[in-house]
Amino acid sequence: MKQKKWLDEYGRQSRSEDDQRSKKTAYFGYRKIPEDEKTQWVLRHFNTVAKRYDLMNTLLSFGIHHLWKRNAIRIMNLNPGDRVLDVCGGTGDLAILAAGPVGRNGRVIIYDINRAMIEAGVHKVAHLPLNERIWFVQGDAEHVSFPDGYFDAAMVGFGIRNVTHMDQGFKEMGRVLKPGGKMMCLEFSKPTSPLFRWLYDIYSFHVMPVIGEVIAGSSKAYLHLTESIRTFAMPNELTAVLKQVGFSTVTEHKLTNGIAMIHLALKG
Fold first, then answer.
1. Is residue 77 part of a domain?
2. What's the CA gap between 59 and 260, in Å, rounded?
3. Is the pTM for the entire model greater than 0.90?
4. Structural domain contains residue 50
5. Model confidence pLDDT, tens digit, residues 77-86
6. Using an 8 Å Cβ cutoff, are 205 and 4 in contact?
7. Is residue 146 included in any domain, yes or no?
8. What's the whole-number average pLDDT of the chain?
9. CATH of the domain at 61
């Protein structure tokens, strides 16, 4: 049984992008795997959960994830006519929220590598009055198939943890942004209160996998979710990565005792 813990600074540094590249390794939760296999691990994971993805998000977060996403879109302050890239956009929750402020002349592109997630999102979006503003493109977040400076804004919600090279994913988001364009990252983080963190750990390791098995048919998928959160960068470390790849004016916004964080950055 793997130790159930949040990685300390040394543990996170040992998983740095440069260290992984030099060793040609990557991580899937606590598990070390060959670098060139991570995409397939991620694809298998989301193929397993795609059909129940939205339901499980709502059940496991008690619906709070909807508030986080609304807050994230509000902070982006999108304008009518904006073109927005939703990296790892999956079933489209963020894209649907962004489609309102960009107006009828705006566009939101959901960009995701997983076909099963896209298909779940297409079905959901098709029944909405704003569906003509939302387009789907299947592709790799590390190699975005759009030209430089094409988008006014880019966002990624709970997906950057699954990109093999996080810094390359952020670089691509920066590349396709116009100068001064906005980038928003919504991601899980470490709760700040020790008591809250203790309760969260019990829930994550002992309750979430059971619900995952009963509802989605996979306890392993939701154990991976728990592990991937506990091995992810801390907010200040994520800010440092964003600045390193060329973003400026990075701000951090804590949600629900730090269980999730919004990073908003501008293209320098």
1. yes
2. 16
3. yes
4. yes
5. 999 999 999 9
6. yes
7. yes
8. 93
9. 3.40.50.150
